[in-house]
Amino acid sequence: MKGGWNWIWKGSSIALLAYVILRGFSTPLQPGLVSATPSQLTLEEHTLTLLAVGQPFARENAQASDFELVLRSGDQLLATVLTDVQPHAATAKVRIPSTLPSRALDAFLFTPDAGTLFLGNACFVEDAAKGDIPTEFRAQAPAEAAPKLGFSFPYQPNIMESIRNLLWHVPMWFAMFFIMGLGFVASLAQLRTDSVKWDLRAEAAVRTGVIFGLLGLTTGSLWARWTWGAWWVSDPQLNGALVTVLLYSGYLILRAALGEDDRVGRLAAVYNVFAFVMLVILLMVLPRYTESLHPGKDGNPGFNSYDLDNSLRAVFYPAVIGWGALCYWMYTLRLRMNRIAYSLLSR
Amino acid sequence: MAATQHTLRTAATIARMEWRLEWRQGHQLAAVGLFAVASVYVAFQASDQRTSASAWTAMLWLVHLFSGFTAIGRLFDRERSQVRRYLQWTAAPLGLMLGKLFHAVITTTALTGIVLGAFVLFLGWPVGIESPGKPGLLILGAWLGGLSMTTTLVFVSAVASQVRGGSGALGAVLGLPLLIPQLILATRLSRGALGDEPWTMLVEYPLFLGALGAGTATIACILFPYIWRE
Amino acid sequence: MHALLLLNSLEGFFFGSGKAHVVTGVALIILAGLAFAMWRMDRRLSRLEEENANPPS
């Protein structure tokens, strides 16, 4: 059967994406501390409440004695007494000494099942003098229990549940790079051979790539609204992405303006080669040398650990393959349309 | 060897031709200069003579951008169609491109002087700035920013000129998105040059601008023969 | 959980209240629709290609 393999990979891409959607939206997030109240402390006894998101770090009626909370100031540990533990909250009493190595306190919550939860700069002590923590206030680092969490996504501060967008946003850009690279090769071949069959390929590739670029921009904008607080920020990576999409829209406009001109293939190929070189400069070279908020570049450790996490990898790689295959399928559909249209027009 | 000579000779001839056209007809640069000065005057009137540093640089680069479009946007539409046909048959494409690029560089240099001069003359310096912290860097940035815009515009206008019955609008539509990165770098550099950051903090901007300009010029030269072939 | 609802809307509302299932369902329906549309287009193109290769007349 001729079309057998064809339907297998097309079906697999859809199946992979279905798996990604199911897994991506149902996998729980690992617990992570988000806030401590009050965050401004004075030199007296306080009742500190820590809130967590993700899956619960404690069972409904957990014993506070199984947990331990210590605060770190500089390189010294400050003891606390846990009074109450809820699935998503822990309450502790803490006495602040008059001397601290650092005014910023980091919180470590040691749990029996969920590992150690960390909250950097959990609270500040404005009026503490600089000095060592007195011995009676000090804590020993408790023994760390290995987390028993099962299949779950890693907790990242600020990103939290929106880490699932990684399965949409990043593969969409990968797919766009892939298909634009295909278009670039097709355009180079078009310039070498001046044959229309490569032009049909290039046009199909760019048209598909623009769709995926727009999807990447949309998902990125949603993510930016959630993590950075604005729909759009001025950032080298984002500027480059926007310019790239505009550039390739220019390609389609140029084709439309050329219309029936018999040089459309060659001129469009020239523009496409130029556009791809700009894409590489804008998205892969410039952001690396300028400061960028965007993860995956220098200066932001936000996502350096995502590729180390096995549970995320188990969904991320299928997502990359699935979106890539879907993108390629779209491209072949457009290419076949172009071919039929061309052969009908030149009959 | 002979091909290289032919290319270089073409480049020199085209540059000379453009230069002569400029003096004979004399209206091209004058028209652009008029456009630039008028735009600056509009900016001066619109800004109530008290501009912040960011508004100042924004207006500077908007005027620079549109003057650049006016000056370079129709670089390949200047010859009559017979001359164009003749050039397509005889001139080495690369030489033609080099000649046009050379002419564009001269024009942009003059334009930078006109825009920047008119700006300082009419608007003065931004509020709170007696004189720019690094005038040399400001001038260098305006010039390099202009140049890196120009090389891209040369390429775009070469493509747009091939569209039969096309107008200048296509060049603008294709060109504007391509100029965003250059403009971002250039505005940041200008804003920095007005303030009192040390110049070592800003040194990457002229480097990037120069690299972008040189890069786009190189690609334009490589691709131009394919555009120009009939 | 109420504290989380106040803390930020997505964490509490979305995953805390089971609304994530609705999102999963909608995403799957969209994917199924897209797959169906592309499959139909694929079939149609195959037919057109065949007609184009050997014209009916």
Report what the structure shows:
Chain A has 347 residues and is α+β, with helices and mostly antiparallel strands. Chain A folds into 2 domains: 32-137, Immunoglobulin-like (Sandwich); 160-345. Helix content of chain A is 48%, strand content 18%. In chain A, strand 6 and strand 7 form a beta hairpin. The longest helix of chain A has 36 residues, at 310-345. Chain A is elongated and about 90 Å long. The two termini of chain A are 30 Å apart. Chain B has one domain. Chain B is mainly alpha-helical and 230 residues long. The model of chain B has no long low-confidence stretch (mean pLDDT 86). Chain B is built from 8 helices and no strands. In chain B, helix 1 (2-25) packs parallel to helix 5, helix 3 runs antiparallel to helix 5 (93-123) and helix 3 (53-72) runs parallel beside helix 6 (135-161). Chain C is an all-alpha fold and 57 residues long. Helices cover 84% and strands 0% of the residues of chain C. Chain C has helices at residues 2-7, 9-15, 19-53. The radius of gyration of chain C is 23 Å and the shape is rod-shaped. The N and C termini of chain C lie far apart (72 Å). Classes of the chains: A alpha+beta (347), B mainly alpha (230), C mainly alpha (57).
Strands, helices and their partners?
The complex is a heterotrimer of chains A (347), B (230) and C (57).
Chain A: H1 4-26, E1 32-37, E2 40-41, E3 45-53, E4 68-73, E5 76-79, E6 81-86, E7 89-95, E8 99-100, E9 104-110, E10 116-125, E11 129-130, H2 166-193, H3 196-227, H4 236-258, H5 264-289, H6 310-345
Parallel strand pairs in A: 2-10, 8-11
Antiparallel strand pairs in A: 1-3, 3-7, 4-5, 4-9, 6-7, 9-10
Chain B: H1 2-25, H2 28-46, H3 53-72, H4 81-90, H5 93-123, H6 135-161, H7 168-194, H8 204-228
Helix pairs in contact in B: 1-5, 2-3, 2-5, 3-5, 3-6, 3-7, 5-6, 5-8, 6-7, 6-8, 7-8
Chain C: H1 2-7, H2 9-15, H3 19-53
